[in-house]
Specification:
- The structure is a single chain.
- With about 150 residues, this protein is mainly beta.
- It has a domain at about 35-85 and about 95-135: Immunoglobulin-like (Sandwich).
- Helices cover about 10% and strands about 35% of the residues.
- The protein has helices spanning about 10-20, 25-30; strands at about 35-40, 45-50, 50-60, 65-70, 75-80, 100-110, 120-125, 125-130.
- The strands form 2 sheets. It has a 4-stranded antiparallel β-sheet, with no helix packed on it.
- A hairpin with a 2-residue loop joins strand 4 (about 65-70) and strand 5 (about 75-80).
- It is flat and about 80 Å long.
Length: about 150
Amino acid sequence: MNITRFDPFREMEEIFNRYRQPASRDLASREYEGMLSGNWVPAVDISETKDAYIIKGELPGVEKEDVDISIDDNLLSIRGEKKYEKSVDEDQSYRTECVYGSFERSFTLPKQVDINNVDAVFKNGVLKLTMPKAEEAKPKQIQVKIT
C-alpha cells in the first residue's frame, strides 16, 4: 500500500488542468500530446505494401495551399492550418465544436524510403502520401538451379 502525502497545490493544479483541456478531446488523443504540437491533431493511417509505405491523413476543412510537407534527415513533417472563417453578416454563434488552428505531425521514415520519389495527393480533405521503397529494400526472388 502506497501512501501519498496530500499536496493542496498539486490538487488545485490537476483541477485547473482538467478545465483547460477542451471537452471534445478524448483520452486517446491526450496520450499523444507530448509527441505532437499544434492546436489539433489530424488522424492518420499508416500502411505498407510490397513497394511502398502509405500515409493517409484526414484534413477536413483544410485547403491544399495551407498544407506543408517536408522531409529532413528521414523525418517526415506534415504541417498546416485549418482557418476559422466567420461571416460578418452571420448571427451570433451558439456552439462551435469544429477544431481550428495549426497542426503538425512528424514521422521517422525507414531508411529504405526513396525520398526523391514521394508522391502527395490531396483530395476531398484526405492527404495521401505514397513513399516508394528503394530498389535495394524490395524483396528479391532468387531461383535455385538443381544440377
